[in-house]
Amino acid sequence: MIKTWLTGTCLCASVLFTGCAVTPSTSSTDSTTKTAVTSSSSANASTANALLDRNWTATEINGFQISTQVANKPSLKFDSKTQRFSGTDGCNRMMGSFKADAESLQLGAAASTKMMCLNTDQNISVQYQQALTNVSRYRASPEHLILMDQSGRIVMALDASK
After folding, report:
1. By 3-state DSSP, what share of the chain in percent is helix, strand and coil, each rounded to 5?
2. pTM for the full model?
3. CB of 91 within 8 A of CB of 115?
4. 3-state SS, residue 57
5. Which of 7, 33, 60, 84 could tie 157 with a disulfide, CB 3.0–4.6 Å?
6. Residue 84 belongs to domain spanning
7. Is 14 domain-assigned?
8. What pairs with residue 97 in β-bridges?
């Protein structure tokens, strides 16, 4: 009896949680952003293009250099087709959505694995995840990516992976 009740309760809960998915709205803010991106100069377009479809490896997080001896460095990739980012904090993989225009970068909620990694610096992982939550602006070239917070403070520096 209890087993049947638990099964039914779990099934109902999963249906309810699935129904709570958020769908993006097509508000006037979105159309304004699209207009701004469309009318941006070719220099700004090349900056946005430099961000996309490259593998980026973190070299600095919140002012602290990441040692070249770190085996698994944090990394990021922004996929232009799916508008999703993916990467690793040096141990766990993470992924989420993003919106970018010529200078601003908004990262959506990230999903992450939660593995126990014995051979990684947990401080780097924590700093990396915290830095990503503060990102709102960026500068990109084909070789370097700088992620900044709202005030323009650099929260992370990354180099294009070779």
Report:
1. 30, 30, 35
2. 0.69
3. yes
4. strand
5. 60
6. 42-160
7. no
8. 84
